[in-house]
Amino acid sequence: MGTVRVGVDGIAVTVPAGATLLDAVRAAGLDLPALCHDDRLTPAGSCRACLVRAGGAVVAACVTPADEDTHVEVAGEELLALRRAAVELTVSALPPRALEGGPEASELARVCHALGIVPETAQAEGGRGRDDSHPYVHLDRDLCIACGRCVRMCAEVQGTFALTLTGRGADTVVTPGTGGAWLDSDCVACGGCVDTCPTGALTEPGLPVGAPRGDLTRTRTTCGYCGVGCALEVLTRDEQVTAVLPCHDGPVNRGHACVKGRFAHGFVRSPDRLTRPLVRRRGRLEPVSWAEALEFAAHGLRAAVAAGGPDAVAAISSARATNEENYLVQKFMRVVIGTNNVDNCSRLCHSPSAAGLTASFGLPGGTDVFDEAELADCLLVVGANPAEAHPVVGARLLQRTLRGARLIVADPRTVGLAGYADVHLRPRPGTNVALFHGLAHVLLAEGLVDEDFLRRRAAGLPELTALLAGYPPDRVAAITGVPAGDLVAAARLYGRAERPAIFYGLGVTEHLHGTDGVRALANLAILRGAAGTGRGYGLSPLRGQNNVQGASDMGALPDVLPGYQPVADAAARERAARAWGAPVPERPGLRIPEMFAAARSGTLRALWVIGEDVCATDPDADRVAAALTACPLVLCNELFLSDTARRADVVFPVASWLEKDGTFVNFDRRFQRVRPALPPPGEAVTDFAVVHALAAALGADLGCRTPADALAECGRVVPMFAGLSHERLDREGAVPWPCPDPGAPGEAALYRERFATPDGRARLASVPYLPPGEEPDDRYPLVLVTGRRWAHYNSGSMTRRGGNLRLDGVDLLDLNPGDAARYGVRDGEPVAVESRHGRAELTARLTGQMAPGQVFCAFHFPSSGVNTLTSGHADTVTSCPEYKVTAVRLIPG
Ligand SMILES: Nc1nc2c(c(=O)[nH]1)N[C@H]1C(S)=C(S)[C@@H](COP(=O)(O)OP(=O)(O)OC[C@H]3O[C@@H](n4cnc5c(=O)[nH]c(N)nc54)[C@H](O)[C@@H]3O)O[C@H]1N2
Ligand SMILES: Nc1nc2c(c(=O)[nH]1)N[C@H]1C(S)=C(S)[C@@H](COP(=O)(O)OP(=O)(O)OC[C@H]3O[C@@H](n4cnc5c(=O)[nH]c(N)nc54)[C@H](O)[C@@H]3O)O[C@H]1N2
Ligand SMILES: [Mo]
């Protein structure tokens, strides 16, 4: 992209080609009001506040392109008067409260102050009323200047199209497109409209218009909900969160956010927060001092090791916690206890991605960072619902589609993006491998493969070609239920695109053959030569938790040390042992489901559960509860008395992501800083401090006193993290791994030269399609798919404590109207769901988004019992539960 040179009041500036005069004026360091303008949006040119003179004419700077050698005149009494008149006209239609809070009250107030417009200019009567129906977005109609920024934000950034301008002339005002109250609209509370509103017409409860902001403390951190990794600025006063705003320079979110990171912070000061350690005495959990709790835990751990050796102890580390905390937990287990029994919720989530991507390409992460993948001209979104589960990513994928990229969605349900898809493939749950083979069959049959790439950089083509002969479209249609014509159409779109990218989620991994699914999906990228190009696109798992990538990177896994170095590898053990000054146990440890089985059989004698509500979120919950009951010692680090904490013998109260220091790794392998915005409540401390304290109670010292030390030590154990440090991240913001060199950038796009497999080639996988573990029958005739809804997060422990409950307060079962009629279920009425394993109580919602024979629910309200329904079937390679396929029956109300 070229540049142009522009003169601004005699100052020469260089701006990128395509820039506007407003960009040039700002590049010159001059202030120019622009009330209808936001850099995140297409310019509107409607408010006339940015009038300048260029080429002899008075023009709105925000919509006038900067041409080479343009001379822009900004200063001068005449231009100032024009701008002042334009803003005065706008302000005169507003009531006095628009300018009562002083210059810092709003962008408009600031502009008025700068232009010398006095508060008395705002004299209108108003009386158009407010809409305070929504917990997070409040509308004062009288302050609306119809600049349209909110409407454009909702359309161009969020992509929800929930807002419109209605009325005429001075009466024009923003309204939800559905007409009624804001709460009942399509708004998904990303906060974008509030963020861009220049007048205070749209505000959030913590920051009403005119409220003083000067005394707020601002802390930049990384969101602790999902794995997108949004950079957020937390505003606090008196140790309370006032608001959380998206950082406009956020490397991933670029000024966008979602209802969770932006608004769901009410949990932080919830009266339910745990503030003191608890110990079980005479069957009841009672508050005790830290010294007592630690002594009790240490005593119990010693007894467990004495009775069953180090392997009688296990820990589930937290993908909600920081890298440094996860690093410390696995070090504690390996060095202090002497076992590899440590795992994290990647097991339940994207462990098939780690296994599958490693087998296909060599490393357990996506092939490219999102910014590059997003440049694709064809998006294949598979078994992922980013509109709800990764809203900031979902919004960007939608914008890419609206700007011309082709879109294929593969999901049994009509998820948010499906409405915009060129082709929506709706496979029966559990039939992905056949679906992907069907697509690959067409790619091969129609010559839509990259022969040169396959020759130079891939292995396994002859075997795959032979296998794919058995997956012609007709047979695949019979297995998956996807019409052969749709399959061919999708394969042609993906096959003919120049830059095809794949994004996928749990609809691929949480299956009996999840790892095979990942590998069969990777086959498509390899056949097209669409991975390791160095130019982006590739294949990206939309990883779930804020730090599930990092928890695994740090070695909170039973078979690998930090940096995925196998515990079975003597050299890797030796390297870690040298850094840690203690031997590393040789035998790979237990995976989460194996831990529960060992507890039930009596061989596991102590389990430390850190930030995972296993009783609510692991499958076949009754058997999980039985495991905890059987285990002589259960320790739990929690924010709340979760179903799991309730069953523990010791509960340590801990800090949340808003209260701690460290780093997270997001879904596309980027390290970012996490900083405390407020202190934890009561006696709660960080997970980091708890691990240190428990080690000390056992007479051990884990070293690395601070989180920064822990990351530095990790870099000494793992060459690919050697270039990372807190100090560097403070300076640079986000740095992707691999990052071996402190002086060089991390590797955003992997495998430019060679894949990280032993022979440097990507491996095509010849895995046959095998049916799911659970199949419907006469007694359990429906297939239940479980997944996510936009307003709640996993166990819901955080999102159910605050305004999100008003956005989504009922645990729903989605089902097709035809099935509802057949089973006598009515919309909005209670329905019991029974599987071969358990029973849940939900409320029915009839929707055409569901295919006949399938029902869907989330698992955000543990009291409904959804995870008593799910089975013990798990991915044959990684033990990831088959959450996406459970045979059920319905019993109306
Ligand atoms: N609002 C919200 N956001 C979240 C979370 C949350 O709880 N709430 N959780 C976070 C976590 S931990 C994770 S892991 C991510 C998960 O993010 P996603 O993977 O996007 O979430 P899910 O809704 O579990 O599943 C995705 C889709 O898989 C589809 N699916 C089911 N079976 C199949 C199949 O056989 N084939 C295909 N092709 N598709 C299938 C489902 O219909 C569903 O729409 O979200 C993260 N973000
Ligand atoms: N039916 C069904 N079940 C599923 C899934 C599904 O699709 N369907 N998805 C699975 C997936 S992908 C995942 S990732 C799991 C998620 O399951 P979990 O990890 O159990 O769920 P979360 O609610 O994210 O967090 C667990 C607990 O951590 C606590 N917590 C939050 N922050 C911290 C912290 O910093 N430190 C500590 N110590 N605790 C903290 C919270 O209060 C919460 O109780 O659920 C799985 N369960
Ligand atoms: Mo997850």
SSE blueprint:
Blueprint: E1 3-8, E2 11-16, H1 21-27, E3 51-54, E4 57-60, E5 71-73, H2 77-92, H3 107-115, E6 130-131, E7 138-140, H4 149-158, E8 163-166, E9 173-176, H5 192-196, E10 202-203, E11 217-222, E12 231-237, E13 240-246, H6 259-263, E14 278-281, E15 284-287, H7 290-308, E16 313-317, H8 323-337, E17 342-344, H9 351-361, H10 370-373, E18 378-382, H11 386-389, H12 391-402, E19 406-410, E20 423-425, H13 432-445, H14 451-457, E21 458-459, H15 461-468, H16 473-480, H17 484-496, E22 500-504, H18 506-509, H19 514-527, E23 538-541, H20 548-553, E24 560-561, E25 565-566, H21 570-580, H22 592-601, E26 606-610, H23 614-617, H24 621-630, E27 633-638, H25 643-646, E28 650-653, E29 662-665, E30 670-674, H26 687-697, H27 707-717, H28 726-732, E31 735-736, E32 762-763, E33 782-787, H29 804-807, E34 812-815, H30 817-823, E35 830-835, E36 839-846, E37 854-858, H31 866-869, E38 886-892
Parallel strand pairs: 1-5, 16-17, 16-26, 18-19, 18-22, 19-20, 21-32, 22-23, 26-27, 27-28, 33-37, 34-36
Antiparallel strand pairs: 1-2, 3-4, 3-5, 6-7, 7-10, 8-9, 11-12, 12-13, 14-15, 14-28, 24-25, 29-30, 30-31, 33-38, 34-37, 35-36, 35-38
Helix pairs in contact: 7-26, 8-26, 8-27, 9-19, 13-16, 13-17, 13-19, 16-17, 22-24
The structure holds ligand MGD (2 copies) and molybdenum atom.
Residues 349, 544-545, 548 line the site of molybdenum atom.
GO molecular function: 4 iron, 4 sulfur cluster binding; formate dehydrogenase (NAD+) activity; metal ion binding; molybdopterin cofactor binding; NADH dehydrogenase activity
Domain 4Fe-4S Mo/W bis-MGD-type: 216-272
Pfam families: Fer2_4, Fer4_Nqo3, Molybdop_Fe4S4, Molybdopterin, Molydop_binding
